[in-house]
Amino acid sequence: MPGEAENILSMEKFYPLLKSVNCTQDRITLAFKDDKAFAYAQKVWDWVNGADDHAFVMVAGLGDCGWNSHRQPFTVTSIAYDEGLNTARLTAKLTDWRTIAHTYDLTVGHVPPTDSRLPARDLSKNLALDISTSFPFTVKIEENGLTSELECSECGTTGKINFELKISTKLAVPTGASIIISPNSVSAKAELKLTESGELSKEFSKEKNILTLPLDSITIPGGIVNIGPNLDIAVGFEISSFE
Fold this sequence. Notes:
6-stranded mixed beta sheet, mainly beta, 2 helices, 6-stranded antiparallel beta sheet
């Protein structure tokens, strides 16, 4: 992901060496526990002060700043050191993953291969959308002299949908995306009651959307991925004659 004048550093890697951390919108202040850790950080990080176009991304781990609810990136452009206090003051702009991740290949979720002989891939987490929901309904349609009423007292779905999403981006331009979906113990239940009244003047067919149910969403903070599907429920009638 980084360019020739960029680097990425995770605060979680050296967090145990810190005495205190203070993060704002445009600055990170790090106080080290001892001289040795501070001197090493100063030696390695001072690269960023070597040229105007030098920068690196400091990623604060969950809760490292005290207020961040997910891994939070900052773009660091310069550092000032206080050797007496073993403190580094980073000029660091709060940013987001979409902005800094200009070139990457991202894989989210995992769908197990149908062929068990295929080698397993290094995917850190299985993700699934829960589609379990209940939606009792009554719908009434009047057409060509006939009144039709469909009632579902026990309607619903259960199970999950496993998915694997791949996104490729180069220099902030999307270059590819694919998604694999696999049902996991998905089932539906419907106890229907149809009532007809009136006199049919001619045959008819009709489809009607009953309701749209939002399902659980999966989000990667920073605007990288936000998947929030809906479940559309529709019924159709086709009647030609009665006997």
